[in-house]
Amino acid sequence: MDIMATPPRVLNSLASSSGVKARKFADRTATVVLWCMASSIILLLAAFIIYMFWIGARYLTPAFIFGLPAETSAGGGIGPEIYNSFYILILTLIFTVPIATAAGVYLQEYARPGRFRELVVFSAESLATVPSIVMGLFGLLVFVYLFKWKFTALGGALTLTLLNLPALMRVTQEALSSVPDSFREASMGIGATKWQTILRVVLPSAIGRMTTGIVLIAGRIFGETAALIFTAGLSVSTNSPYDINPFHTAETLAVHLWYTHTESIVPDVDRIGNGSALVLLIMVLVFNISARVGGRALSKRLTGRPS
Amino acid sequence: MIASIAQRAHRNERIALNVLRFAAYFVIFAMAVLLLYLAVEGTKTFFVDRFSLFSFLFSPTYDLDSNHPGAAIFIVGTLLVTVFAIAVGGPFGIAVGVFLSEIAPPRMALVLKPAIELMVGIPSVVYGWLGLVFLVPIIREHTSSASGFSLAGAGIVLAIMILPTVISLSEDAFTSLPQALREGSFALGATRFQTIVRVLLPSASTGLAVALILGIARAVGETLAIQLVIGNATAFPVNVFAPTATLTTVIVGQMPSATEGSLQEHALFSMAFLLLIIAMLLILVVRFALRKRS
Q1: Can you tell me the mean pLDDT for B97-107?
Q2: What per-residue confidence (pLDDT) applies to A295?
Q3: Domain locations in chain B?
Q4: What is the pLDDT of residue B68?
Q5: Are A152 and A246 within 8 A, CB to CB?
């Protein structure tokens, strides 16, 4: 249509035609709907947390948090379970952090594109999608059946190491790739070898991001359940509730929450469940907040710049 | 003196490279051993106990007294909860991904992203517990379900659990699209919504497919969150409010009492191997899709 020949009245009606109005209306409606959906996630999470406090807060007495579990009677605590969760978490990190960091540094800084690199990446990706229950059965086969360790904290920690290795490798790679190449060039330009550059320049610059990632993964290890049921066991150590021997059984808090509901015969399942679930939730909150704050602080201290 | 420092640096360089390469080998080794070991244990049902693979996959009779561990019920159960979760959580997750990439002001993203990260961190057993104390009573009171334990409850819990995966991956899919696509579309007079639906969604389709597939992978392997709400009945669900069981829930429910070397144990390992195969197939699909795009 020749616009110049069109009378102004028609042009006006074109601009404000129902088509344009409808499109603008659809656009505005969609924006509102998407805002609502996104906000609903925050509301859902907030409601989730408030509800957990609502049903669990009254049980968080010192006797519950530090007390010993009871097998048949009411009133059991979760002290040893919390201890075991931290114990297995620390054991797991001792294995996972060095291996994952090394593999991540190798992939990001050394490996040239090719078959071997592809194979490492593919293995890591596959390992990352292995369901945690399947990893638990693998742990059962290796540590309980093959090595004849029975249910042990160490077997549980090694199983969790395999489970979390790929995630931590990715964290390392992402942290390393965030370090600008000019850092590496400057370091090698003044005569440092590649390894010296990585150790003294690249890793310190990446440590903030890495710490954030490690602490977030630590939160996940703390709450892991399915992989531990068949490797670390369903009861606390019989030697001592706060056992330091990695070759004894070590039921964690998350496993305790599941086991109390499914199998045990104590009469106050709801109290233990609601209380334990709340403690787990609080721990996850603590890990998430400290990941952000801690990573930023560490990065600032080591490099003088925020991550 | 200088020469010896250089020599030492050179030696350290070599040692470091070997240590790092060893770690990389370890990753391959771990995955290979896991695959082999589960393949051996997971096929004992067929090679040691002589139970047919066909019956294992398609027979709905899971009866250990008559040595007949058909897993069809659990396979269908896994399929149904996964479909339920992805049907609810998939579109929702993609919508929030679009929102984060195209609409959210920085301040909103600053709240939403940590919230999503927190959702990833919450242990699956806590999700399951909340489903048990909150969702199950609601379903019991408001539907035909007598116990409240149901496929729908498990599906809802799963849908929430896969949200973070779908959201962050679909957000990535949208943010990685070139800005020129948006500019071109706006210049033609399209509204933001039209741009999203007609230009960005089709362009990001591969990335969105990857987001959904990884959501599926998460749903298939999820165990305790489902186990606490699905009811663990060895039966096909007659409707969405009926109890049933999945591969993961039957493994975690029966493994503690299974004797080493028994048919029951072998069958449970076969189910674990099946889960592993499904997970690896999904990863292969993702790799294939991403390679095709690049």
Answers
A1: 92
A2: 75
A3: 2-42, 71-293
A4: 87
A5: yes
Q: How many CB pairs under 8 A join A and B?
A: 251
For the whole model, what pTM was predicted? Answer: 0.91
Quick check: B63 pLDDT over 80? yes
CATH number of the domain at A61-303, please?
1.10.3720.10
Residue of A138, A199, A285 to mutate for B, most B C-beta atoms under 10 A: A138
Partners of residue B51 on adjacent β-strands: none
pLDDT of residue A13: 47
Q: Which of A103, A134, A223 sits opposite B125 (nearest CB)?
A: A223
Which residue ranges in chain A fall short of pLDDT 70? 1-18, 304-307
Could you give the C-alpha distances from B250 to A48, A141, B224, B256, in angstroms and in order? 28, 18, 11, 11
Residue numbers in A near B100 (CB within 8 A)? 38
Q: Is A216 near chain B, with CB under 8 Å?
A: yes
Say which CATH topology domain B71-293 has.
MetI-like fold (1.10.3720)
In this prediction the ipTM stands at 0.92
> Residue B132 carries which DSSP code?
I
CA atoms within 13 A on the CB side of A16: 5
Sorted by where each begins, the domain ranges of chain A are 3-57, 61-303
